[in-house]
Design goal:
Strand order of the largest sheet: 1-2-9-8-3-4-6-5-7
Structural class: alpha/beta
Bound molecules: S-adenosylmethionine
CATH architecture: 3-Layer(aba) Sandwich
Helix content: 25-40%
CATH topology: Rossmann fold
Number of strands: 9
Shape: globular
Number of domains: 1
Order of helices and strands: EEHEHHHEHEEEHEHEH
CATH class: Alpha Beta
Largest sheet: 9 strands, mixed
Distance between the termini: 27 Å
Number of helices: 8
CATH superfamily: Vaccinia Virus protein VP39
Strand content: 15-25%
Length: 240
């Protein structure tokens, strides 16, 4: 399992739960996590599909590596999320902010897990993906995803005021099947202290935003192909 340092960023390859448990208590400033939502289908047969079949049109299949951990049902997602969120909370300083991405289907489970892990739940930030989001005949467009956020215990009421809705298109050029925009991460990081903990790094948009903002970063990724992609993107960005 690889661990590499790029400037003030550390990239670790391996299972997040194991790696999180190895971090020193209170050593991280905050958490921003984009876990596999297991959200591709209502039925077991749907969830068990490869991630490319769940999240990509057939014309895009094979463009990106498959990613890990996206086959859980709701009950097992709740149990697993509680475990990793508890380990992440232990690693974040008192008063530090924690945020977890979710879609509408896993939103209730995610707020349950967040609180079960001991975080103080304080709200939901909306990521408005614009009208480029998935259209549905006779239904509302699935245009938003969410960040369940809160703090590790009490947090003083001071610092800048930031918006609670951010509008960013899904990147045209992606580096991950579920790739998110770096600009969205920069907006979210406005009030998160470093070092920032990112247990599900993927193609490292959170790491890139941390590099830009001069924040320390610890990113974790279980899938070697995505670890390689994250490493290359971070190395190139740091060299510029
Ligand atoms: C939703 S994706 C993150 C995408 C990322 N935000 C991006 O824009 O590229 C979740 C990532 O977590 C990784 N993953 C899944 N289970 C994991 C685990 N137990 N430990 C570490 N990484 C894991 C997957 O391989 C996947 O790359």
């Amino acid at each position: 399992m690889r661990s590499v340092t790029i400037g003030s960023a550390i990239l670790q390859e391996g299972d997040a739960l194991e790696l999180l448990r190895a971090l020193a208590p209170g050593s991280m400033g905050g958490l921003l996590g984009d876990p596999p939502y297991s959200s591709g289908g209502a039925f077991r047969s749907d969830r068990a599909q490869p991630t490319s079949a769940k999240y990509q049109s057939s014309s895009d299949r094979g463009k990106y590596p498959e990613f890990q951990g996206d086959t859980r049902d709701q009950r097992s997602y709740l149990a697993w999320s509680t475990l990793w969120l508890a380990a992440a909370r232990r690693a974040v300083k008192t008063g530090g902010i924690g945020g977890v991405f979710t879609d509408w289907r896993q939103l209730p489970i995610t707020t349950d897990a967040f609180q079960a892990a001991g975080w103080v739940w304080r709200g939901i930030v909306v990521w408005d993906k614009t009208a480029a989001g998935r259209p549905q005949l006779g239904r509302y467009r699935n245009q938003a995803e969410y960040v369940v956020w809160g703090t590790n215990g009490a947090r003083a009421l001071k610092g800048p005021i930031v918006d609670g809705v951010f509008r960013h298109r899904v990147p045209m050029k992606k580096h991950h099947i579920a790739g998110k925009p770096v600009g969205l991460m920069s907006d979210l990081l406005a009030i998160i202290d470093g070092p920032v903990l990112d247990p599900f790094m993927g193609s490292a948009p959170i790491g890139l935003a941390c590099l830009e903002a001069g924040l320390g970063y610890v990113g974790m990724e279980a899938e070697p192909a995505y670890f390689d992609i994250a490493f290359e993107r971070m190395r190139e960005a740091a060299a510029q």
